[in-house]
Every structure is written in structure tokens, then in C-alpha cells.
Design goal:
Elements lengths: L1 H49 L16 E6 L2 E9 L4 E2 L5 H11 L6 H12 L6 H7 L4 H8 L2 E2 L7 E2 L5 H10 L3 H4 E2 L6 E10 L3 E12 L5 E11 L6 H7 L8 E4 L1
Parallel strand pairs: 3-4, 5-6
Antiparallel strand pairs: 1-2, 1-10, 2-7, 7-8, 8-9
Helix pairs in contact: 2-6, 4-5
Length: 258
């Protein structure tokens, strides 16, 4: 009896462990699918947008305004697509603009030493994302993620394009009193886009995905994924998107401005 009881307990433990493991594998697969779908959805939005007339009201301004997207009853995604022409380029921006952006996002006090370290790392060519530059410069992950939402190392020059500047950055620049004529450029697009997505998958798991995608016309219109990062459950720097993703959504494919 003791032997049989031990076998039953052992089998129950084995089956329970297998079920938990299979559930974890299924959740991980769902997370990968959701993150991949969010990126594909962002590409479709960009491609659809550039085919529209500049005067078309359906044209999307890639200024970081959240987009609510639902493509199945169990997947809810909130997207932010930002044209990097509207972000602070850590390689070329003025010290005044970089300091202003950091003060407005992470800390009221920014040292010259920190600015110099960020600039050195950004220009080194060793990092393919602004978040990695900030981490290497000594910022905490939370602060690095917040500052990275408004910055890039993939821009063409130090100027910002006025009509694609994220609303948060425009507010920070406005409050800081930076000369708009020197900060904002006239170029509307860099053809390179930063994508942030928060997706809720079955099991109430939140997946935070970030990528930089570049539109290339050689050999047909296609996207090149310059950078990608996916984190499960961490919402630092994207709390706003995380709040939106919990709102009710349709069961069919749709996207709308929030």
C-alpha cells in the first residue's frame, strides 16, 4: 500500500509538472506570436500610410500617439509608431536639447559628465539602440527605457521633424524654452521607425516589444529590422500603453487612434 501510494503521488506530481510546463511553453509561444504580429501590424500601418495622399484624413502621424489594435479575441495590442526623424538623436543633438530631454523624462538634474558619457557611447558605434547607450552610460533600466522612448541612434541629423515629434517631447521642448527654429527641421520622414507595443496574451501575460524598422526600396518595398527587444511583463517606460491594453477590444481586426 505504501509503495502504491508513493507511485500515485509520484505520477500526480509528474503529470502536474508536465501540465505546468506545457502551459508555460504555450504561454511563451503565444507571447512570441503576439510580439511578431504586433511588428507585422506596424509594418502594414506604415505601408498603408505612405500610399495615402498627404491631405487624406486617414493618414497616420507617427508622433507616438497610441493605436489600439485587435486582431483576435484573445490578443489585444497597443502600438506606438514613431518616425525617428522626430526623436532626439544621441549622436548629434545639442547638449541643451539632450539635457532638456533627460530632465523631462528621468531626473531634474543632469551633469555634464553624464551628457559626455552618453555622447561618447552613442558615437562609438558599439550600440544599436538608444536604450543600450543609456545603460552603458550608467542609467538604471527603468530610466534608460523612459529616456529611450524619446531618443534614437538611427536619425539622419540632429534636427527634429516638427510633424512627427512625439507629443511628450514637444511638450518638454516647449516648457524648456529651446529655440524651435533650431530644433525642428522640415524633413517629414527618415523612413526609419521606432515601434513600441504592449500586447496582452492569454494567461494575463503582458509582452512589451520594441523594435526599429527601416523601409527600403531597393529590390521592391521591404522592411529591414534594425533592432528588436522583447520583454515579458515589464512595463517600465510604457505604463500608458499598459493601461490602454486592458481596455475592452473588438473580436475582429481593427485599429484606431486613442
Amino acid at each position: 500500500m505504501i509503495l502504491l501510494s508513493g507511485l500515485v503521488v509520484g505520477m500526480n506530481s509528474l503529470v502536474s509538472g508536465s501540465l505546468r510546463k506545457s502551459g508555460a511553453v504555450r504561454n511563451a509561444a503565444n507571447a512570441d506570436f503576439a510580439a511578431g504580429s504586433a511588428f507585422e501590424l506596424s509594418k502594414a500601418i506604415v505601408l498603408g500610410n505612405i500610399t495615402l495622399s498627404v491631405m487624406d484624413e486617414r493618414r497616420v502621424k507617427f508622433n507616438g500617439a497610441p493605436l489600439a489594435c485587435g486582431y483576435a479575441s484573445e490578443f489585444k495590442t497597443i502600438l506606438k509608431i514613431v518616425d525617428v526623424a522626430g526623436l532626439v538623436d544621441l549622436r548629434f543633438s545639442s547638449d541643451q536639447l539632450l539635457s532638456l530631454m533627460l530632465r523631462g523624462t528621468i531626473t531634474p538634474s543632469v551633469s555634464n559628465a553624464l551628457i559626455s558619457e552618453i555622447r561618447k557611447n552613442a558615437k562609438s558605434g558599439e550600440f544599436i539602440s538608444s536604450i543600450d547607450v543609456f545603460l552603458a552610460s550608467g542609467l538604471s533600466r527603468t530610466d534608460a527605457e523612459r529616456a529611450a522612448a524619446l531618443s534614437t541612434v538611427h536619425g539622419r541629423h540632429s534636427r527634429l521633424a516638427r510633424d512627427v515629434t512625439p507629443q511628450d517631447l514637444a511638450r518638454i521642448v516647449g516648457v524648456g524654452g529651446v529655440d524651435g527654429s533650431r530644433v525642428f527641421g522640415s524633413s517629414p520622414s527618415n523612413k526609419t521607425f521606432k515601434v513600441a507595443a504592449v500586447t496582452e496574451v492569454p494567461g494575463k501575460t503582458s509582452v512589451v516589444s520594441q523594435a526599429v524598422i527601416a523601409l527600403e526600396n531597393s529590390g521592391g518595398v521591404r522592411f529591414r529590422r534594425v533592432f528588436e527587444r522583447k520583454v515579458r511583463r515589464r512595463l517600465s517606460g510604457h505604463e500608458e500603453l499598459g493601461a490602454h491594453v486592458r481596455a475592452p477590444s473588438s473580436n475582429t481586426a481593427w485599429c484606431s487612434h486613442l
